[in-house]
User: Which sequence fits this backbone?
């Protein structure tokens, strides 16, 4: 390992997941909330700068390609991720900018060009969160002139090919291809331009791409997926993998699995960073933190929960007569023999706890909230838990999905980060200027001159 990678492996890494007023579905109703946050650029910039001041690796922007009346309010009215990170690139200096984009409903050439443009504008700080798209509303295909949503296995086959094509396009130009030699009339060296001429199961792309390498060559690849094909996709291509596990043993098992798969693909496992998704709540006392959670939960309406679940399970169950505080076991969800494929992650999180997890809890899990008592309490308690998960091989970093923004981000940045910095577990300054440099990664792809 190079010395930069060794140094970065010793620290805990952080992404800040930014969505409106927070990941909690009722955060917009909080008395301190700014309901139009997700469509207010100045507000979004302030969140990004708070994360940058705390020296986070990156901010992280999710996405959805379909909404309906039951969707989390935080996603009903918001910016498109690639456009937003492009704008962020001009108003931030060091922090990475990760945008989600779907391989199921885009074309590689269009995406490769837009993402690399954003990477150039930011000076090499963009990342791509590769998703195949969960169809929470059962209506995504209808937004793209398609008859039905791709099934799980087909989505991942298409995703692998999509990434192959995108990387091929990003490799269209060698770093020193553009000469700009006025005297000789040579704008570029023709020997350093590569056509793609790709033909596969899903795509036929000629290339080359009409934009050259950025300061980090091309965007960092990130990916979330706990299914077998999801893990394979991440292990083959990504440097940042997202997961959500309730305890250290399960998180460690996942991390060991994807690192082993990456090695089987001929990759260096040390260049794979696993970020566990958590929703930390920091307060002066544990009781105060728990009360703040209850305060938000009390703003969720029962009808909101039941309407969502009725549609999510597409008539497989009737939730009439149940309240949002009914348990998953009482609802009959465990009796479904063929649940939606994208229920897999949520099902793993609640397995064995069906008698205690409520429908309201399940709604929070499905729409993003990632609560874990290890990360709820005083700054020292949260810092100790982060350090323990890192030391025991459960996580290289954490994707922080704050319930209430900007408060939870600010409390974490000013309360937890300084404690980790004192222990040498969080950076005090950025060592480089690109997102890949924040992870100690070589920006130059193998085999590329």
Assistant:
């Amino acid at each position: 390992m190079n010395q930069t990678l060794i140094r970065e492996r010793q620290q805990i890494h952080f992404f800040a997941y930014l969505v409106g007023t927070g990941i909690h579905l009722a955060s917009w109703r909080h008395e301190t909330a700014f309901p139009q946050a997700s469509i207010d650029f100045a507000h979004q910039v302030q969140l990004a700068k708070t994360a940058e001041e705390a020296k986070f690796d990156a901010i992280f922007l999710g996405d959805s390609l379909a909404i309906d009346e039951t969707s989390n309010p935080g996603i009903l009215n918001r910016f498109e991720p690639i456009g937003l990170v492009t704008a962020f690139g001009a108003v931030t200096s060091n922090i990475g900018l990760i945008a989600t984009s779907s391989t199921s409903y885009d074309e590689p050439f269009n995406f490769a060009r837009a993402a690399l443009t954003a990477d150039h504008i930011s000076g090499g700080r963009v990342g791509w969160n590769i998703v195949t798209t969960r169809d929470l509303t059962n209506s995504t295909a209808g937004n793209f002139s398609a008859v039905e949503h791709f099934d799980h296995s087909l989505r991942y086959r298409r995703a692998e090919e999509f990434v192959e094509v995108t990387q091929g396009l990003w490799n269209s130009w060698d770093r020193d291809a553009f000469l700009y030699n006025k005297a000789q009339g040579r704008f570029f060296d023709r020997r350093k331009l590569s056509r793609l001429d790709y033909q596969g199961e899903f795509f036929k792309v000629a290339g080359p791409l009409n934009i050259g390498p950025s300061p980090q060559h091309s965007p960092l690849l990130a990916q979330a997926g706990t299914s077998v094909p999801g893990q394979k996709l991440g292990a083959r291509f990504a440097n940042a993998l997202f997961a959500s596990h309730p305890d250290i043993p399960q998180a460690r098992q996942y991390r060991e699995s994807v690192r082993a798969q990456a090695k089987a693909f001929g990759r260096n496992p040390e260049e794979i960073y696993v970020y566990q998704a958590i929703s930390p709540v920091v307060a002066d006392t544990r009781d105060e933190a728990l009360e703040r959670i209850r305060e938000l939960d009390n703003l969720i309406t029962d009808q909101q929960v039941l309407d969502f679940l009725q549609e999510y399970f597409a008539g497989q169950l009737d939730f009439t007569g149940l309240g949002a505080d009914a348990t998953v076991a009482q609802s009959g969800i465990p009796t479904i023999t063929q649940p939606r494929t994208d229920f897999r992650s949520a099902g793993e999180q609640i397995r064995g706890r069906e008698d205690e997890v409520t429908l309201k809890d399940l709604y929070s899990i499905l729409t993003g909230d990632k609560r874990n008592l290890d990360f709820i309490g005083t700054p020292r308690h949260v810092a100790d838990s982060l350090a323990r998960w890192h030391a025991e091989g459960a996580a290289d970093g954490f994707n922080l999905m704050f319930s209430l923004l900007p408060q939870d981000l600010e409390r974490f940045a000013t309360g937890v980060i300084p404690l980790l910095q004192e222990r040498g577990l969080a950076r005090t300054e950025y060592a480089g200027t690109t997102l890949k440099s924040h992870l100690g990664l070589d920006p130059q792809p193998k085999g590329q001159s």
